[in-house]
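Researcher: First entry.
Model:
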Amino acid sequence: MHISHSSEDDNLKRLLSLSIEDLQDKCGYFDIEKNGRAKELVFERTRYTYNDALEYFDDNFLSQITSLGLSIALKEGDPDEAV
């Protein structure tokens, strides 16, 4: 988003939190620091929200959202794998 000032920090933190919550509702719990695919989707969803284009996010990232959800579901079933 190339934001070079801090006046948007609170808004961006709020948007990031909302994106994490939305994607966890859709895909299951993930640790944002350990799951790179989830982190990327959170950033992309936040970018869409910031640019008033959120209505396009689900359609444009459907395969990545589905893939993330499946990988989380498979890891939940594997007792040797941490999410």
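Researcher: Second entry.
Model:
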Amino acid sequence: MFRPQLPDIPHLPMTIDPHCQAPVQPAGRPLTPYAGAVAAVVVVGIVLTALLAAVAVTAVSVAVAAVVLRSLVSNANRR
């Protein structure tokens, strides 16, 4: 009494259309083997970008330190 009942679905007869063609396989190789290579290139690009950013930050900090030391040495010579 309280059990849900599914409605009756009419089944349509399966007919095959003679004009329907089978799907055509794509020519050439699939792109699946290239997924690893693409991932490797992306990872290498990220690593190289991080290294470039680290070198740039280091260069800026060395330049600031050089300017500070130069100003300290020049002020010491004036006295």
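Model: Note on the second entry: DSSP finds one helix and no strands in the chain.
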